[in-house]
Structure formats: structure tokens, C-alpha cells
Amino acid sequence: MTAQFPMIRPRRMRKDAFSRRLMAENQLTAADLIYPVFVLEGEKQRESIASMPGVERVSIDLLTDVADELVELGIPLIAIFPVTPADVKTELAEQAYDPNGLAQRAIRALKQRQPELGVMTDVALDPFTIHGQDGLLDETGYVMNDETVEVLIKQAVSHADAGADIVAPSDMMDGRVGAIRAALESDGHIHTRIMAYSAKYASSFYGPFRDAVGSSGNLKGGNKYSYQMDPANGDEALREVALDLAEGADMVMVKPGMPYLDIVHRVKTEFKVPTMVYQVSGEYAMLKAASQNGWLDEKAVVMESLLAFKRAGADAILTYFAVDVARWLKQG
Ligand code: PBG
User: Fold this and answer.
1) Ligand 1 atom closest to the CA of 200, numbered from 1
2) Of residues 200, 268, 288, 310, which has the active-site annotation?
3) Please, what CATH class does the domain formed by 27-331 belong to?
4) Is the pLDDT of residue 11 over 80?
5) Residues 268, 254: contact at Cβ < 8 Å?
6) Does the annotation mark 111 as catalytic?
7) What is the pLDDT of residues 152-174, one digit of tens each?
8) Is the CB of 125 under 6 A from ligand 1?
9) Is 43 annotated among the ligand-binding residues?
10) How far apart are CA 17 and CA 13, in angstroms?
11) To 10 degrees, what angle do helices 322-331 and 298-312 make?
12) Is the pLDDT of residue 1 over 60?
């Protein structure tokens, strides 16, 4: 009796490092990373964030040091998030388009220090409204669409005026990409790229971010269900992406990341356009907390999570781990 042995043994290729490397379908590099930074007023200011251990808010003078490090590590893009002091927040979010606002000053400082580092800005009103919603409210508390878009246009143009390379509307108002694109074109900002947060879900994974920018208290238990997407939906994400592309988006974003890999994959497969993914604050907090408890191996799980984004079809990943990852990649 001859025993039946398999002719096909997938394990052959997995036996040695050389053949595993040879057949790897995806690879993570520093060029895939986008690094988000929370920016503070003042000088030599550095604050930690309780729900995001290892992430800090920094003032502009320290932000420019971060820029040097990103260039050194080969990370192509920084994303800035201003932490607006409470006393400049208003109902109408005027601070969002102040040419001397925190974001606008940060953009100028970054472009002056490291011209080749891409600078991306968040276009949404939540850091600037006293209620923490991404837009202007009517008397019932509903976030008004078209009135909000008018302010978003001013905000995006002020970022482009300051030198932003990419504006990223993260507000989920209808028609904002087209309106921003038209305004940028008519102001001569023909090179400003738009990264549309096209598939942005009403996610509970944003909690730590709202602590970081100080908008959670303002939101007072309110939610963003009337504009951000329902986690139940997938087809709707494709529709949002199609609209944003038709309106002039250069890139699209899926957010959050890990629970939405199916969306990343569907978007990339369907549209074949630059597709970014945001590993959000709550994902960071989960991986970090488990690692700090010794329950997970931080480097291993972070690298695995980012490779999984690439496998799903992401072209770049916005992650609070970007600097750590680029260092690990450099160490080999
Ligand atoms: C603001 C904005 C949010 C995030 C990025 N831009 C919060 C929100 O929509 O409430 C969340 C990012 C994160 O959790 O890391 N529009």
C-alpha cells in the first residue's frame, strides 16, 4: 500500500525566508504613510493625550521639527489637525478660514521648513464650532448642508492660499467637493489636490480624536448620523466615491480602517483611483492599550494591520503609528 502524498504542497514556498519574500504580493514602505499631527497654539508646547498614549499635541515650532523627521524617514505627507482654543470657537466657525488661524500658520511654517514634504489639511468645521458639529446648525440643531459648504469653500481656499498641497474635506456635506474644486480653480489653485473623505462612517472609533482636538465635550453626547455614513452600508460608499470623483476629487479616503477593509477593497476594485485609508484614533488606542498591557506585540500587530490595508487595496495609510513604522522599516 503506497500512502497518498500531496503533489501540491503550498508549504514548500513558505519554508524559507527567500521564497516567502519572493512571493510576497504586497509590501509596506515609508512612501505609503501619512502622519497626522495635532497642533497647539503657543511655543514649546507639548501635551500628551490620555486616550492616545504616545501621541502628543505640539506647537508650531515643534511641528517643524516633526517635519524634518518625516523627510528624514521618507514619509511623503503630513496631515495637520488644529487644536482650537475654546475662546475662538463660535456658532459660525469663522476661525476656520482666518488667514492667520492656527492651521494656516502651521501650513506656512511647514512649507517654509520642508518645501518637499506634502502638507494636507482637514476641511471640516468641528474644531471651530462651539457645538462640535462639522457644520452650521439651524434652529432645530440640524447641520445645514449648503450654508456649511459656503464656509468649507472659504476654509479650503484659505488653506490653499497658505500653501497646503492637499485639502481633505472630512465633513460629509453633499456637493462640497465640487464646490471646493470650482473655488480652487477660479482662484488659480489648479495644483491643489483634493483627498475626499468619501466613505466616512459615523463611527464610535473617533472618540480619542475628539479628546485630542477638544471637541468631544462640545458634542455633548450628540452624534453625526445625519451626515456621516451608517456602518450598515457598503453600496452607499461606492455612490459617495462616484460623486466625489465626478466632482473633482483626486483621491478618496475610507475611514475608519480595520473594520472597513471590505469598503477599501470594493472602492479600489470598482474605481481604480488613488484610495487612502485612515487608521483612526480608536484603532490606535486599541492596539496601543493591548500592547502596553503586554497582550499584543505592538510592532507585529501594527505592521500586520498596515499590510492588511495594502492587501485590501489601499495606496496609502493615514496612521498615528506612521513614524514608528517608518523607523521599524528603516531598521529592517
Ligand atoms: C473631523 C474629523 C474627525 C476625525 C478626523 N477628522 C472626527 C469626527 O468626524 O468626529 C477622526 C479621526 C480619528 O479618529 O483619528 N471632521
Assistant:
1) 9
2) 200
3) alpha beta
4) yes
5) no
6) no
7) 999 999 999 999 999 999 999 99
8) no
9) no
10) 9
11) 100
12) no
Structural contact between residues 85 and 128, judged by C-beta atoms closer than 8 angstroms = no
How far apart CA 38 and CA 69 sit, in angstroms, is 16
Residue 219: the pLDDT is 79
Q: Is 299 a catalytic residue?
A: no
Query: Which one is catalytic: 89, 111, 224, 255?
Result: 255
- In sequence order, the 6+-apart residues with CB closer than 8 A to the CB of 44 are 59, 61, 62
- How does pLDDT run across 118-128, given as a tens digit for each residue? 999 999 999 99
Around Cβ 41, how many Cβ atoms within 10 Å? Answer: 15
Tell the residue number behind the cell numbers 494636507, with chain if given.
120
Whether the complex's predicted ipTM surpasses the cut of 0.90: yes
List the chain domain ranges.
27-331
Q: 201 CA to middle of ligand 1, Å? A: 10
Q: What is the rounded average pLDDT of the residues 136-142?
A: 95
What is the distance between the alpha carbons of residues 91 and 89, in angstroms, rounded to a whole number? 7
Q: What pLDDT is recorded for position 3?
A: 74
